[in-house]
Amino acid sequence: MVSVLFVCLGNICRSPMAEAVLRHKIEQRALSGAVKVDSAGTGDWHIGNVPHEGTRKLLDRWGISYEGMVARKVKESDLVDFDYIIGMDDSNISNLRKLTGGAEAEIMKFMDLLPEERLREVPDPYFTGNFDEVYRLIDAGCDILLDKIVAEKL
């Protein structure tokens, strides 16, 4: 089983959106038994909360389930338990690297999947309110990520 962990700041906007979108794409490609997805935040403000209303409304519009998703904080064991750990911005990447304690965990920035985009970080819609832009980036990046997983691990 290949595992993916998306990480953002509070785990209520970007990372749960990416988790839901990738799960949806995995189901569409009949890969549910081969790839598992989760999300977490580097902060603890929203632990136990459902995704942000803006994320839920957008996912509802696209017919993508977020059932059972609640915010949690990333933990050190995640850095061993997941094959792909994907941070949404430079701050997330920096916080993840601090958690490794010098160990070599495979961590990548989401926007590295989309080198043609001028943006180098996934904007945080908690602050910008632009959930549509974030969805556009996440939708495109998840297609590329899933192709990468299939090519490298399946």
TrEMBL record:
It comes from the Bacteria. This is protein-tyrosine-phosphatase. It is an enzyme of class 3 (hydrolase). Residues 2-148 form the Phosphotyrosine protein phosphatase I domain. Coiled coil: none annotated. The keyword Hydrolase applies. Keywords: Hydrolase, Protein phosphatase. It comes from Paenibacillus campinasensis. SUPFAM superfamilies: Phosphotyrosine protein phosphatases I (SSF52788). Belongs to the low molecular weight phosphotyrosine protein phosphatase family. CDD domains: LMWPTP. Its EC number is 3.1.3.48. It catalyses: O-phospho-L-tyrosyl-[protein] + H2O = L-tyrosyl-[protein] + phosphate.
